[in-house]
Amino acid sequence: MRRRQQDHNNPQRKLRPHKYKHLIGEENASLIIPDDWRRPRRLSIALAAAIVGVVFIVVFYSLTSKRQSISPQEASSLRGTPSNVVEKHRRVIGVGDIHGDKDALVRALQLANVVDQNDGIAWTGNSDIVVQIGDLLNGADPRDEETLSYIAEIEQRAREAGGGVVVTVGDHDLRNAPALWQRMHSVENDENNNVPSFPSWISAAHVVDRTLFVHGSLSKSVLDGAGGSLEAMIRDAREWLSGGQKKPDWIGRGNGPIWSRLYSDKASDEQPRCDDLDSLLNYLSVDRMVVGHTVRREGISSICDGRAWRIDVGLSRTETRAGKIGGLREVLEMREGGSIVTVLSTDTKLKSWER
């Protein structure tokens, strides 16, 4: 109040009529109030508002950054295996057993639109990932070398483009693939007779976009018996395939992931062990398992509400046993981080069957 009186008595101050004179009456219209007496208060309010705004922005940014930035260990739910990180911009393609038939492999990749439609040499899949489910080779087949050479070339081109190719080891690949790889690269040996190392893209199992790929079938009991670590199983198999002396116990077993038909044979249609499957998938934090090893004459199919997919449709002309004629050309496609699963199919017979 004292300040108002002092300002009022100062003839040098700029004064203005009271803005509420219509409320206080004409008799008080001569009351004048200095224009700048409110400025300190206005400045204080503006400064306080600015500080509050800055604090809000800093807090909001820190909270959202914490939600969006996660470590690779947090992003990976596969016991430290980074391949389980989901990327929605790419597709994952599952291709069934090939048995040394390069022509069948080329046409399957063309069906998925990951190689060119002419000779299948150019990679067109960008960041897409192809997983060939195993039995890439047939064993003692003259076409095996051509097939392995082709997929090795496609793997390199896919990798250079930001995509990938993986082969999960099948029973026909166990001994044949390492021996053939060594023979193919014998001319590249150095003076110490060292052969280029066995490729890491040939693996006992593979996980991508919350999907487990394995040639046969994997059970929780077998995984537990191997120490409970899928990553360790993959590492041990790779060391042995690369020439190591210690063969993992589970590799040759009928209930192991390479030989088992737990989720692919006719018994799995009649009495699927979905509870056991759920136990495994939950432990690995994946949504589904994709297997081959057993030809499905009706085409690609699933059991346990889409948690197990069987993708061996007898693509190869070498599958000549009764009921295993490869009349269908089908591959499995997963999009949006595995949330959309589609069977890509055509009724056109493979040219390899027309010869």
Offer a quick outline of the entry.
The chain is an alpha/beta fold.
Secondary structure layout:
Blueprint: H1 2-8, E1 15-17, H2 21-24, E2 32-34, H3 39-68, H4 72-75, E3 92-95, H5 102-111, E4 129-132, H6 144-160, E5 164-168, H7 176-184, E6 202-203, E7 206-208, E8 211-213, H8 220-225, H9 230-241, H10 266-270, H11 274-284, E9 288-291, E10 301-303, E11 308-310, E12 329-335, E13 340-346, H12 351-354
Parallel strand pairs: 3-4, 4-5, 5-6, 8-9, 9-11
Antiparallel strand pairs: 1-2, 3-12, 7-8, 10-11, 12-13
Helix pairs in contact: 6-7
Tally of discrete structural domains = 2
Q: What is the assigned CATH homologous superfamily of the largest domain?
A: Metallo-dependent phosphatases
Distance between the termini: 107 Å
Q: Total strand count, please?
A: 13
The CATH topology of the largest domain turns out to be: Purple Acid Phosphatase, chain A, domain 2
Categorize the overall geometry. Answer: globular
Count of helix runs:
12
Strand content: 5-15%
Residue-averaged pLDDT:
78
What would CATH call the class of the largest domain? Answer: Alpha Beta
How many whole angstroms does the radius of gyration measure? 34 Å
Q: Main sheet?
A: 6 strands, mixed
User: Strand order within the widest sheet?
Assistant: 6-5-4-3-12-13
Helix content: 25-40%
Using the 3D structure, state the CATH architecture of the largest domain: 4-Layer Sandwich
Structural class: alpha/beta
Helix and strand run: HEHEHHEHEHEHEEEHHHHEEEEEH
